[in-house]
Design brief:
By secondary structure, the protein is mainly alpha-helical. Helices cover 68% and strands 4% of the residues. The chain starts with 6 loop residues before the first helix and ends with a helix.
Amino acid sequence: MTTGGRGLHGHVLDTLGPSITAGEYPPGSVLRTDELAQRFEVSRSVMREAVRVLESMHLVESRRRVGVTVRPKHEWNVYDPQVIRWRLAGADRPHQLRSLTVLRSAIEPVAAGLAARNATSEQCAELTDCALGMVATSRGHQLEGYLFHDVAFHRVILTASGNEMFARLGDVVAEVLSGRTHHDVMFEDPDPAAVTLHVRLAEAVRARDARAAEELTREITVGALQELDILAP
């Protein structure tokens, strides 16, 4: 369960979550609920709700007569979209982007190959629409518009694979792509070669060419890694 910025406990999360993921509270740090409620000027019940969300992300654990303890990084739910967003907002951004892009390079080519075999005609049409949308927004510094179509494109690939585990990674990929855009880890206009690869990938899926779909997706993810070498070394 994640709540973003909704409600009072959302306000607490938007401050406390990034502080934890940025290392301001090292593993083993003990946070007192009463002190936090005072600091954020919220009730104890609001503070407890915020802590429950942090517990669901495995960022902290609560123990009676001990308090709220920050857990080691290796125990965090690093696939939680909100955790990804917080980490991308911090000083660890280059490492986080690289880690997530390597994950994409391992998963998405296989998913694309499966999509070429399993995609419905509706999904093929949606993929083509997304690719055309990327082309239309790839010039003139329209990064937000481009991001919209890019996220939708990759969600379709993962869903069309027919593998529910891959499909659930749609939110993770969306956070990677959004993080690159919102934290200026993108060129002012997307790489034309990358845009062309997405168009060719949509064509390969529609043509049921699994091998081409996999190879094209691998080129896309390799290109994303090369961009990070330049923009977030």
